[in-house]
Amino acid sequence: MEIVRVYTKLRAEFGRQGLFSDRAAELLGDLPPDPSLALQFIEKTPRDQATQACRDMSEHQVNTQRFESESCGINHVEGGWPKDVNPQEMEQTIRFRKKVEKDEGYMNSILQLGSVTEHCIRQNNAIDIYQGYFEDQDQVEEIQDPPSAKTINVFRDPNEVKRTVTGLSWHPDGGRKLAAAYSCLEFQKPCRDLSLDSYIWDMENPNRPEMTLKPASLLVCLDYNPKDPHTLVGGSYNGQIALWDTRRGGSPVEVSSVEQSHRDPVYKIIWLQSKTGTDAFSASTDGQVLWWDVRRLCEPTDRLVLDLSKEGNLDRALGAVSLEYESTMPTKFMVGTEQGSVVSCNRKAKTPAEKIVCTYEGHHGPVYALQRNPLFPKNFLTVGDWTARIWSEDIKESSIMWTRYQMAYLSDACWSPVRPSVFFTVKMDGVLDVWDILFKQNDPTLSLKVCDDPLYSLRLQDNGGLVACGSQGGGAMILEVCAGLSTLQKNEKSLLSAMFERETKREKILEARQREIRLKERSRSEQSREEDGGREDGEDSPDQLIARAETDFFSVVEAEQRRREREEQSQQEKGVCEEKEVKAETKS
User: Fold this and answer.
1) Which residues have C-beta within 8 Å of that of residue 384, sequence separation ≥ 6?
2) Which pTM does this prediction carry?
3) What is the pLDDT of residues 233-267, one digit of tens each?
4) Where are the domains of the chain?
5) Which of 222, 319, 359, 546 could staple 285 via S-S, CB 3.0–4.6 A?
């Protein structure tokens, strides 16, 4: 066959992108048929041909890494525990796991194994066409949104006479429900038409409570059982303890007897970590801490009188307002009192006198909130009067960190269960404050006006995303915090640990310095007494101290008055100058 036409193209134009455009049809060539080629075709007779219904498949192979899988099994029994840990005891295993999780070597091993595990998992996944293969996630920093929170639900007391929400408890199974205790803590307030009911609310239905709890007296506090989400225990205004099973209706299934219960309102009740999951303990302003087995509430299983003289005298006992219990330390618990002190106790002590270990003094009023840090149990948070304080168990003389005095009284506080450096406080002016001590210590990171009524109670969901606040007007507000306040930040644990250690060391140095100064003053006063023949002239009398305090106070007041007068005078002079300037402009 002859070559009719040759198309030539430069080598540089090979692979060049084709440019297409709309234009009219154009005939480039015409090849007429050749009748002589028809003689070369052979016509075949018709015949049957079988077809396959399924789709034809083609087989091909590519150069990929060969992976061979193998199925195997292992018979695992309890092993790998230290000799001093009994694997059958849940408390010991939980305590050992917590100890291992806090080890730096454990964290580094998990981080190293995480990348290897992720690589193996990705090998078995299908290719994602939207995956970014060249992103370096370590260098790309996420844009942090400013701290924020928004109200998503409000549960209001359905009764005409509104009561204070004095206690809150989230459902342990995902936090889909919220139990609220309604009470009136104002002594001798007229209680006409005052309902005794408390309620369990569903997050999806804020218009009507899911269940009504009917106690014999107003509920001051209540708490869901972490092991059995159908049961919850509550403390009443008359001192009784009641147990509810939500599967059996709103009436309590067990109630403690009046003779064996508290003599004052039960301000706090907490479930204990035990094998049966039926143990709890309560605190009241009558000066007692009582332990209960909810299967038999006729009498308490144990009793502790908060008498600091360790004589067990109920008349000299300190009134308990708040409680703290950490499941990893089952023998220790702490009690916040009406007198502003925190009492650290040991339940397993042999004698009642040895159960009270030490006290921490630091508040001018009742300690309304007391909670250990979820990741650093040696450090705990207290709220009383106008401040919130962070303490260390190693220092009993003073707290290691504290907020400045607020304009409104603080009523409750709690740590974030997710971020160990964040805690929440509520105040009597209806404001919720969120503190991030790694970011800022002088002022709260976020202040939100929740309602016009005073806020009395506060409780966080286990995942840290939802906050429940109870008000004096009977409203339970549910707020959703932003992801920055409910997600663990990078290096947060190590930074907070270093901060707590630094502040603890600083307080120890200051306390040692103060003790040294006091010893020097004492030795100097004793020496002056010996020189003066035993007279106590070196010590100031109470009248002299009062007179000196009055002088200092009035000097401060006079200095403040002079400062205000100077400011008013400067403002008046500024106003006169502005009037003269205005008159001059009008004349011109």
Assistant:
1) 336, 340, 362, 363, 364, 365, 366, 367, 368, 410
2) 0.63
3) 999 888 888 998 888 888 888 888 888 888 888 89
4) 149-507
5) 319
